[in-house]
Amino acid sequence: MQLTGQENLPVSQALAWAALNDTEMLKAAIAGCESLTPVGEHEYELLMAVAIGPVKAKFKGKLKLSELKPPSSYQLAFEGQGGAAGHGKGEAQVRLETLGPDSCLLHYSVVASVGGKIAQIGSRLVDMAAQKMAADFFAAFKAALLERHPPALAPEPPPAPQGAWQRFLAWYLGWLGRIFKSPEPPRSR
Questions:
Q1: Tens of pLDDT along 33-56?
Q2: How many CB atoms lie within 10 A of CB 86?
Q3: Which residues pair with 90 in a beta bridge?
Q4: Which pTM value belongs to this model?
Q5: Does 182 score more than 70 pLDDT?
Q6: Rounded distance, CA 26 to CA 140, Å?
Q7: Can you tell me whether residue 96 is helix, strand or coil?
């Protein structure tokens, strides 16, 4: 199975890199993730519930980051066992590209293989499930990014500079207003 794509992220490359290395943020964005625990430098254990077609299982797996080039890219190797449901393993390339001060593009490429009951349900169903998992992950990840780093409100544009005519007109109308100002009503005692 191969899966490639790109996602526009509404934060700077540095903030996206930090989020991609934040286990709590990743755990919240991965559907069915029950735990994501560091077990060494750039190594994690993962426990998640997965449903692909009629096959539902809890997978226990390992993730390992390598070829880290902060804040732009890394490689992720993964493997998981789901008991009678089967197993899976693969690699992913993740690369961030700066688009502007508050946005970047995440490129990803995944190559994976599955075995056991999962492999028996057919590659088309497995591919569709993988695409849905990726879409769900990025939707949740973007929502978490926006919650953690809300976009800055655009500042009010400065008032247009006034020419001599506008300054004179403003002065003249103010002067007329002071001359023709209605007298104050008498105060009652």
A1: 999 999 999 999 999 998 888 888
A2: 21
A3: 78, 112
A4: 0.76
A5: no
A6: 9
A7: strand
Q: Could you tell me the sign of the dihedral formed by the alpha carbons of 8, 12, 13, 19, in that order?
A: negative
Positive or negative, the Cα torsion across 83, 32, 20, 3? positive
Closest CA to 26 of 109, 17, 161: 17
Alpha-carbon distance values, 41 to 21, 52, 64, 122 (Å): 12, 31, 9, 36
Structure tokens at 173: 């109308």
What pLDDT, on a 0 to 100 scale, did the predictor assign at position 181?
Answer: 67
Q: Which of 92, 90, 73, 89 is nearest to 81 (CA)?
A: 89
| Angle of CA points 63, 127, 72, to nearest 5° | 45
Longest dimension (CA), the chain: 97
> Does pLDDT of 188 surpass 70?
no
- Give the integer Cα–Cα distance in Å for 82 and 88: 8
Which residue carries 């069915």 as its tokens? 32
Q: Say what percent of the chain tops pLDDT 70.
A: 90
Alpha carbon distance 59, 37 (integer Å): 14
Mean pLDDT, residues 7-16 taken together: 95
